[in-house]
């Protein structure tokens, strides 16, 4: 199933508590100055926290293309 997800959807899911954290990477988006542009930048910035969530909290990591 192909699903289109927009930034507004993700922001609403965080606001509604559906997601507890969202690290958004839009490589062609310049609307978020100073924010990580690529997935690997977010992994580098939040790596230890991400590892904790996956290992200790059974977190799920999702991505949309």
**Class inferred from helices and paired strands:** mainly alpha
Q: What would the principal axes of the Cα set say about the shape? A: globular
Radius of gyration: 13 Å
The run of helices and strands is HH
Ranges with pLDDT <50 over ≥5 residues?
none
Total domains: 1
Query: What's the total helix number?
Result: 2
Beta strand count:
0
Overall pLDDT = 79
| Helical fraction | 40-55%
Summarize the main sheet: none
Please report the distance between the alpha carbons of the first and last residues.
12 Å
Question: What portion of the residues fall into strands of 2 or more residues?
Answer: under 5%
Would you summarize the structure shown here?
This protein is mainly α. The chain has helices at residues 7-15, 39-57. The radius of gyration is 13 Å and the shape is globular.
Characterise the protein shown here.
The protein is mainly α. 43% of the residues lie in helices and 0% in strands. The longest helix has 19 residues, at 39-57. The radius of gyration is 13 Å and the shape is globular.
Task: Sum up the structure in keywords.
globular; 2 helices; 65 residues
Layout of secondary structure:
Elements: H1 7-15, H2 39-57
């Amino acid at each position: 199933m192909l699903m289109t997800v927009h930034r507004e959807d993700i922001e609403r899911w965080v606001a509604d508590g559906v997601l507890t954290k969202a690290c958004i990477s839009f490589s062609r988006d310049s609307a978020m100055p100073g924010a990580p542009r690529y997935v690997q930048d977010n992994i580098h910035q939040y790596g230890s926290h991400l590892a904790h969530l996956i290992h200790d909290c059974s977190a799920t990591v999702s991505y949309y293309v």
